[in-house]
Specification:
alpha+beta; 3 helices; about 120 residues; single chain; Beta-lactamase Inhibitory Protein, Chain:B, domain 1; about 25% helix
Length: about 120
């Protein structure tokens, strides 16, 4: 006797991964890695106010400062670039993320930077 299973989508349906699920999976992977160490993304310099000037700094400068973005997307219709770096070793976690939103001319419209690197914590606290 077989039963039919109700499916939400086609058999190969894979819903998109949300940022929360992605970060949760990253945390679990970090915990499982234990003392072995785990890195995600690529190290990039922490930005200063001089590096990111709203209405002046363009994409070419950002590529020169930070390298290729780790992610690209849209925020309320505006193009965005993001750089992310995370390192976990011996139970110590270091993370930083820079997200830049561009205007229609390709210049910085707004940006967000978060970090728990000790030098950033001292500088920005």
């Amino acid at each position: 006797m077989s039963r039919e299973i109700d499916r939400v989508g086609p058999p190969c349906y894979n819903p998109p991964v949300s940022a929360g699920r992605f970060l949760g999976a990253l945390l679990i992977a970090a915990l499982l890695a234990g003392c072995g160490g785990l890195t995600f993304g690529r190290e990039f310099p922490s930005p200063t106010k001089e590096m990111l000037v709203t209405g002046k700094t363009g994409k070419s400068e950002l590529l020169r400062f930070f390298g290729e973005p780790h992610q690209v997307g849209l925020d309320t219709g505006d193009p965005t670039w993001a750089w992310t770096y995370a390192s976990v070793a011996s139970g110590h976690e270091l993370t930083k993320q820079l997200t830049v939103r561009f205007d229609e001319r390709g210049l910085v419209k707004s940006y967000s930077f978060t970090s728990n690197f000790p030098e950033d914590m001292r500088r920005l606290k």
